[in-house]
Each structure stands twice: as C-alpha cells, then as structure tokens.
Amino acid sequence: MKLILVFCTTLLGMVACGEVGRTEAPTEETVVEGFMQDASALARGEALFEGSCAGFCHNLEQSASDAPSLFDCEWKHGGADQEIFDIVTVGVPNTRMVGFGSNFPEGDDDLWKIIAYLRINQQACS
C-alpha cells in the first residue's frame, strides 16, 4: 500500500510539473534542410552553381573578384535561406548580380538545391 501511495504521489507531482504527457512540437524540416540530406539534390545544386554562378561570377576558391565568395561565411546582403533565395531571384541593385527569377530548369526547387549546396559547404562557419 505504501508503494502505491509513493508511486501515485510521484506521478501526481510529475503531472503537476508537466513532466508526464509533455510532447514537444516537432520542428518541421525546411526545404533546404531536406535537400541537404539528399545526395542527388546536392549534386544538382553543385552542378547548377558551377554552371550558373561560378561559371560567370562567384569563384569556387577565394580570389580577387568583385563578386563575393559564397563560401567564406560573410554575406553582404543577408545569409538566411530566404534572403539568399530573394537575392538570386531579384538580384542586387547597382551590382552585376542580376536576378535569375524562376529561370532554372526546375524552377524554385533548383534554387533551393543551390542554397543547400552552399549550406553544406559553409557548415564549418557555424
């Protein structure tokens, strides 16, 4: 009987403190985080980056250029995923960074894959 009383008292205390029945809301994975887990998405992001970005402006390795490196962890116009998406979509006024709009072959998905590729290569920055 004492054991049951101790158990019930402990259980009641845990419920009162919110320890039992507490469920944390799962955080939803972002599109970029999902693509970061997908090898084929990263390969496509890399190919698109090399063909669209590195081929004209953004070097894969640091060198003297008016186009900033996208792998040095310093973002001039915002480094959040949505900010990068917006910059690539609309461009940066008074620079040679033109907006690509949704002109990638697979539209917005391709741009998110490029951002995932950039993120994978920037993880050392965090």
Write the layout of secondary structure elements.
Blueprint: H1 2-16, H2 31-36, H3 39-54, H4 81-90, H5 108-122
Query: Termini separation (Å)?
Result: 55 Å
Mean pLDDT across every amino acid position: 79
CATH superfamily: Cytochrome c-like domain
Counted up, domains total 1
Q: What CATH first level would be assigned?
A: Mainly Alpha
- Which regions contain 5 or more consecutive residues with pLDDT less than 50? 1-16
Largest sheet: none
* H-E order: HHHHH
Predict the CATH topology: Cytochrome Bc1 Complex, Chain D, domain 2
CATH architecture: Orthogonal Bundle
Tally of alpha and pi helices: 5
Q: What percent strand? A: under 5%
Shape: globular
Describe the oligomeric state of these chains in a short phrase: single chain
> Considering DSSP H and I runs of 4 or more, what fraction of the residues is helical?
40-55%
How many beta-strand segments?
0
Our Rg estimate from Cα atoms comes to 23 Å
